[in-house]
Request: fold
Amino acid sequence: MNPADYQRAARDWLERNVPSEGRADGDPIAQAKDFMARFYDAGYSGITWPERWGGQGLTQEEERAFAAAARDFTLPIYVFSIGLGMTGPTLVDRDRRPARAVRPAAAARRGDLVPALLRARGRQ
Reply:
């Protein structure tokens, strides 16, 4: 899929799946976990992460296309920002076997990236 088509598909998905801002009902962590599961299932978590890590294995072009599609939305994934934005990419860069077994993008789907990594570290 070319980047323009990827951006259109991402924007369509975001329009259907991003909750409206200001929603105060329910538990915000549970809502973020629910959204993260749908985000992962749609293929938007770990866009450039290798498939062996649970990512999509796509290029920076798709990552930029998604970012362009998402710029007008407030994604409810803030509680995962450290894991997705710092921990996951660092692990991918260092390619450590115990962490790879966790499949960080899939752990992020469940909302337990850091706890899963700590459990994997204990199994070394």
User: Anything to note?
Assistant: Residues 11 and 55 are 20 Å apart (CA to CA). The chain has a mean pLDDT of 75. The two ends are 40 Å apart (CA to CA).
